[in-house]
Amino acid sequence: MLTPELLHGLRNLSLAARQAAEGFLNGAHASRRHGAGMEFSQYRPYQPGDDLRRLDWRLAARSDRYYLRESEIDTSLTVHLLLDASASMNHRDDNGLTKLDYARLLLGALAYLATQQGDAVGLTILHPAGLQHLPPRADARQLPRLYHALETTEATGHFPGTGTLAQLTARRQRALTVCVTDLYEEGTEINTLLTRLRATSGDVLLLHLMAHNELKFSYQASVTFRDLETGHTLQIDASQQRAAYQKQLEAWLQETARQARRQGFDYHLLDTSQPLDAAMREFIRRRNLGS
């Protein structure tokens, strides 16, 4: 598997996105035996470099096997990618990557998958001062636009307020919305936005990023924490607080997942120390259901 550190080390988002997407498809195929009864006259196994527009996404969602259609009409949809670029996304894991670094790789890979399938892909970067928006397109120049926007964005300030976000839900446009965020918010602004997008656009896939050192609380001895958005600091003894922290975190994660699914979102928790495969698998499943 291609680790986030390896992909980030390429220092080339276009290359990293393609490597991640094609490595995932090829690895998933290689790890499974062909099922009995597969119609090989209509399908052939995916190979690196194949045109992903011919990939049978429905078969992939049902079986996690990746085959190309030899003679079917392609389906496509609109994919709207959302990136939380508030300052909390600057949190750095033990592997040296920030949540924003991971989000860039992830969204780049998802954009590559969707574009190769023929989908119209758009991107909105959520900044506190305003939105950076690239409308959905299916032309050959869209991927470079998306990569440039992702590579040049910086995480600053708070998650934008209701007024700034209003333009995202001003008109109805059927799409699969994929939101990558750490769910750090002052109130319920992220949940409110996704609820409105669910009503106006349809399907919402919520990819919740957490660093490994947050999930495992791998800190030792006396530690001073600083809130990246407010600047507030807190000094604690990590060893003494670990058990209480992990208990509260587990309760919060369970409630977060329950609330998201109750409101109709597809929710998936991602550890930023882990490969992108789980998120890409969830995207393929959700994309298939919407096509």
From TrEMBL:
SUPFAM superfamilies: vWA-like. Coiled coil: none annotated. It holds the Pfam family DUF58. Residues 42-249 form the DUF58 domain. This is DUF58 domain-containing protein.
